Amino acid sequence: RVVLSSNPKAILYFSSFGNLKLGGQKSLYHLVTRLDRKRYRPVVLLPTDEDFAEVLRQEGVEVAIFQLPAIGFANLFSCFTAVKYLFRLIAAEKIMLLHTDGPRNTLYAGLVSRLRFLPVVFHVRDSDRDRYDRLLYRCADRIVLVADALRERFHWVREGRKFITIYNGVDLSQFPKDRVASPAPARPAFADRILSIVCAGRIEPRKGQNDLIDACQELKERKIPFQLLLAGDVEDDRYIAACRSRASELKIADQVTFAGHIENMPAALQKADIFVLPSIFGEAFSRAIIEAMAAAKPVVATDVGGAKEAIEDCVSGYVVPPADPRALANKILSLALDEPLRRRFGAAARRRVADLFTIETNVRKTEQVYAELLGSTDS
Question: What are the start-end ranges of the E strands in the chain?
Fold first, then answer.
């Protein structure tokens, strides 16, 4: 049970989605449920009443449900209604700070904050540029980037006063430390088992699963038994059909599984030997990467977004160029043939997460931002 002080400062969080399938919503869940509730009281505005709302209520977090409409002249009445709703919510909950996560809700927050004199924190979890970025920059008092690489999204800004990088964090308790083993003695490769490769991400072209399927051809040619598990919701039916067709063409269809969304990824990662993220573009700071590292798995990832900030290349994993199946294959093969190397990389990955990417570090740094904006001295 959360014990509140007599006057915690209320923060209104805007979420672009109402479910917990995406990394950004998982990050927001970890943040609001671990805030120092003696100092801050979270209220989360969700567009739909789904599983995200349910788990927040179970944790004693206040939830409001309202779908903010698209902003435009054709929608003026709906926009006006939304602004009125926000004014009422802010007044009723005595909100002192707005924390947003997407273009639309940042535009709304920017408008109401100027009329209510409230600070706005814009949490940038997407590396893709938005046509309103210049306006979004002006709406925010502080901009939290999930990786230094996202600074490029605001390339026209010369000074960095508004920016702070706070990496996503994972809950290490979901990845027990006893899973980390010391390097095993050398033995003939795969004398008694099959190499398990896991990839997590929505099934769509930007995620590059087709490149990973191509890369696995090298394992087949080297007669290395393997299974590839592709976890993630299907976003593009034509793309998954092309991936299945390519796997059949390479005669590895029976070794490739499209598993859909997996609720318990820690359990799936526990059984993996290697984690691969072959994205071509569109990554910011992948939660999937740091979860795999927390599970003490060596990671092969493409140099997209903050991958180089998460992985220490050749120490806790490999970073390779995007859209290069041959480069992927070479690094996967290096790990496939060397079990002690996999274990060393995995142990190093786990240590790196413990040092840099825990949810405790994420929350503490975020609370420091709040303290600065709200004039607190008790940070």
Answer: 9-14, 40-46, 62-65, 95-100, 120-124, 142-145, 163-165, 195-200, 226-231, 256-260, 274-277, 299-302, 317-320
User: In this structure, is the dihedral angle defined by the CA atoms of residues 29, 33, 36 and 39, taken in order, positive or negative?
Assistant: positive
Token reading at 355? 């040092």
β-strand partners of 230: 199, 258
| Integer angstrom CA distances of residue 179 from 176, 193, 232, 319, 339 | 6, 18, 24, 24, 15
What's the pTM value of the predicted model, to 2 decimals? 0.90
CA distances from 276 to 42, 148, 198, 213, 337 (A): 35, 22, 6, 11, 16
Nearest Cα to Cα of residue 118 among 368, 377, 370, 378: 370
246's CB contacts (< 8 A; 6+ apart) are 210, 213, 214
Structure tokens at 50: 């789904």
- Integer Cα distance of 323 and 304 in angstroms: 10
How many Å apart are CA 97 and CA 42, to the nearest integer? 10
Q: How far is CA 316 from CA 172, 230, 285, 353, in A?
A: 17, 22, 16, 10
pLDDT in 10s for each residue of the chain, 379 residues: 444 445 899 999 999 999 998 889 999 999 999 999 999 999 999 999 999 999 999 999 999 999 999 988 888 999 999 999 999 999 999 999 999 999 999 999 999 998 899 999 999 999 999 999 999 999 999 999 999 999 999 999 998 899 999 999 999 999 987 655 444 444 444 445 799 999 999 999 999 999 999 999 999 999 999 999 999 999 999 999 999 999 999 999 999 999 999 989 999 999 999 999 999 998 999 999 999 999 999 999 999 999 999 999 999 999 999 999 999 999 999 999 999 999 999 999 999 999 999 999 999 999 999 999 998 644 4
CA distance 25 to 181: 31
**C-alpha closest to that of 86 among 72, 107, 103:** 107
What lies within 8 Å, CB to CB, of 110 at 6+ separation is 120, 135, 136, 138, 139, 140
Name the residue among 303, 299, 302 with its Cα closest to residue 291: 299
